[in-house]
């Protein structure tokens, strides 16, 4: 893959492509980071399923954020060492989609303001801490500071990304020391640290 041209296409924010950006950054790979201010009918017509994000490799286009992140993690050594490691990573990725989707539903897709406030309160008081508890146990059981094995994987990056998104909205990881340590571990990665320090602040 080193000789191929990699392009990620998404909106201006982090959203559903940021974990793929983080994989490429962590791997030290050059890529074209295309950020669209608008998504026109012309753009939509050129996508496989009428939506973003997209990954282009030498002009061939692929969609679906989890598929993109999974592929890049496999290509660049962030998918564990065995199929069992991959299964452990997959379960964390899919678990994280649940809390991420709940966040999107509350903040972006609920039109009724009263209902929206209820969903956000439920997220902050119950759902987010519940998922942090799952993460805490997985980290404790693995015993290496990482979710899988003893090195950085997609599981660590995707949890870091979703925790960042919730912290930005005033949520807390207090009471979950292993999650907090993982967050700091990922953010202090020598390639990720400068990327995070200079990236544009966006709501999502």
From TrEMBL:
CDD domains per UniProt: GST_C_Sigma_like (cd03192), GST_N_Sigma_like (cd03039)
GST N-terminal domain ranges (all copies): 4-80
InterPro entries associated with the record: Glutathione-S-Trfase_C-like, Glutathione-S-Trfase_C_sf, Glutathione_S-Trfase, Glutathione_S-Trfase_N, GST_C, GST_superfamily, Thioredoxin-like_sf
GO terms of molecular function: glutathione transferase activity
Pfam families: GST_C_3 (PF14497), GST_N (PF02798)
Domain GST C-terminal, first and last residues per copy: 82-204
Domain of life of the source: Eukaryota
Biological process terms in GO annotation: glutathione metabolic process
Name the record gives this protein: S-crystallin SL11-like
